[in-house]
């Protein structure tokens, strides 16, 4: 196990112990141990375990050191497994309800005997939760709202998580000797931020072995359908996957149809009908009874298409990337030859919004830099939280100055080819002021400004708050515009038009936060905003080395927003970025 994997286990142990009402000192010891591990270099942990010196580390006593060593060596911990088995699963599930922490769950369980989310909803509905000490009507309504949201959100899954399930399935299908072609379709292929279910389109010579393989994959909880042309399964996560088997000559048409979207498909069928053709998942052919078309084609034969490119060409269109197929003018643009050359993952040269263990990150500066170098990035921006984000160990002026000095020294050492820019994710205070004064901000290479608290302001007040921050001459880019957390929390209300206007007027970048839980500014705003001159930066908001790869999710949203390489700041080479940032100081 990596140090962060072990830290996750220690953190979960602390949560479970709190649910059981264990000694708070023991709970805090596990949390402290997790933080110690996160602040280490991976190589340091490996060495300490190998040399059996873990217990010499401050914050890791004998018992905790033994558990860390066991996890590091074997990948499992008997104590952890027994602890999980000792707690009602329903109590753990309640942790997914916004506004409910271990202490409140324990109180509800002990005083009301509630052990499931369904029972919790009933206790809220009849007012029993509100009557408990420390709760009240507002807390009860918040819990009920959280349960309702959980139920609604539970029907969808983050793109990132769905893609992690889909990728090995596609690879496995393609590896089967009976399979000629295989692709994932649906909202996953279109790069939507959340996915309802998975669709796989397969052209195969012999379907029975393909179906057998599909329904016996690891993690399948239930087989909901099984036939000669379709099979459906449901995974432990609740995600459903549908397999559709078609003849090879129908593959392109089925792939296009099941990729969608519905609006795109409707418009494509209308375009086909206007040309005397009928488009469906089975093919493209002259409409029934259209003698004119039959005479011109000499026979009512279907139109062959070996690929989607052929399909679009048959209707007088250039290939439309899946991300654009939302019925929002992509067909007209394809006809006029005006589809943009969309930004690609390979275009990115670095990213700016990233965290280290100095605040709430889980990898050190050097580990983050090494990971960026492994990705081939020319530069990496470090923007740890500012002091008002105390919950994220935000840096005060002295700690920020020390970090800037550390970054400058790292660059000077030549240890990495990747250049590190020194920045901050500076809190936008409730009145729009920034968390650091101008003299401090002037010492940095760039400044990301973000809202992290007081989300309940009116749309007018929140908009004015953000615009004031944008107008600060030291602001480089605006972070996660609405603070939304997909499938967990709606964003706060803002006037996008006014914020975009202010950003353009002040030459401030708005980020496309590539965290799979955020993906904002939402793709639906980018096309018009970029056309007016707004510059984007695709930032992973990475809190650990693995998080840097989240830019893949950001690329999806950027492409859905019709963004080109030229409209994305971090596609520029290092020399251009240095010049661009220098001109703003």
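Sequence proposed for the structure above (585 residues):
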């Amino acid at each position: 196990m990596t140090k962060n994997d072990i830290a996750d286990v220690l953190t979960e142990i602390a949560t479970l112990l709190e649910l059981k009402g264990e000694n708070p000192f023991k709970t805090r010891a596990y949390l402290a141990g997790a933080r110690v591990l996160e602040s280490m270099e991976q190589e340091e942990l490996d060495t300490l375990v190998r040399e059996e010196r873990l217990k010499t580390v401050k914050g890791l006593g004998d018992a905790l050191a033994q558990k860390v060593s066991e996890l590091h060596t074997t990948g499992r911990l008997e104590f952890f497994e027994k602890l999980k088995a000792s707690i009602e699963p329903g109590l753990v599930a309640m942790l997914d309800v916004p506004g409910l922490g271990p202490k409140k769950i324990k109180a509800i369980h002990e005083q009301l005997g509630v052990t499931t989310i369904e029972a919790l909803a009933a206790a809220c509905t009849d007012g029993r939760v509100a009557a408990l000490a420390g709760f009240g009507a507002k807390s009860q309504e918040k819990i009920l709202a959280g349960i309702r949201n959980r139920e609604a959100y539970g029907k969808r899954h983050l793109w990132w998580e769905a893609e992690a399930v889909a990728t090995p399935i596609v690879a496995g299908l393609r590896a089967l000797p009976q399979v000629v072609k295989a692709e994932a379709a649906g909202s996953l292929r279109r790069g939507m931020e959340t996915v309802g279910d998975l669709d796989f389109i397969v052209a195969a010579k012999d379907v029975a072995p393909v179906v057998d393989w599909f329904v016996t994959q690891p993690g399948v909880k239930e087989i909901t359908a099984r036939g000669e042309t379709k099979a459906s399964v449901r995974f432990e996560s609740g995600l459903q996957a549908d397999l559709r088997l078609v003849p090879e000559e129908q593959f392109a048409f089925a792939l296009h149809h099941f990729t969608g979207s519905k609006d795109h498909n409707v418009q494509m069928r209308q375009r086909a009908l206007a040309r005397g053709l009928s488009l469906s998942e089975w093919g493209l052919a002259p409409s029934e009874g259209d003698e004119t078309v039959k005479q011109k084609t000499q026979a009512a034969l279907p139109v062959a298409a070996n690929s989607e490119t052929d399909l679009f060409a048959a209707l007088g269109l250039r290939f439309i990337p899946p991300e654009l197929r939302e019925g929002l003018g992509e067909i007209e643009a394809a006809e006029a030859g005006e589809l943009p050359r969309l930004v690609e993952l390979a275009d990115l040269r670095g990213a700016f919004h990233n965290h280290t263990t100095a605040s709430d990150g889980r990898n050190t500066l050097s580990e983050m830099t090494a990971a960026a170098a492994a990705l081939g990035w020319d530069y990496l921006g470090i923007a740890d939280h500012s002091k008002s984000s105390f919950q994220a160990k935000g840096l005060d002026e002295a700690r920020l100055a020390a970090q800037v000095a550390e970054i400058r020294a790292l660059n000077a050492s030549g240890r990495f080819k990747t250049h590190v820019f020194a920045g901050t994710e500076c809190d936008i205070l409730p009145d729009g002021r920034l968390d650091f004064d101008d003299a401090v901000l002037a010492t940095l290479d760039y400044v990301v400004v973000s809202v992290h608290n007081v989300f309940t302001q009116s749309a007018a007040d929140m908009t004015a708050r953000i615009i004031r921050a944008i107008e600060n001459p030291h602001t480089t880019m605006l972070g996660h515009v609405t603070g939304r957390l997909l499938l967990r929390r709606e964003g706060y209300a803002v006037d996008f038009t006014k914020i975009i206007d202010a950003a353009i007027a002040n030459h401030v970048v708005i980020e496309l936060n590539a965290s799979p839980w955020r993906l904002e500014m939402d793709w639906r705003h980018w096309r018009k905003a970029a056309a007016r001159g707004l510059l984007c930066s695709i930032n992973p908001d990475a809190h650990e080395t693995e998080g840097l790869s989240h830019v893949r999710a950001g690329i999806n949203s950027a492409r859905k927003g019709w963004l080109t390489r030229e409209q994305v700041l971090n596609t520029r080479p290092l020399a251009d970025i240095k010049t661009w940032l220098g001109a703003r100081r």
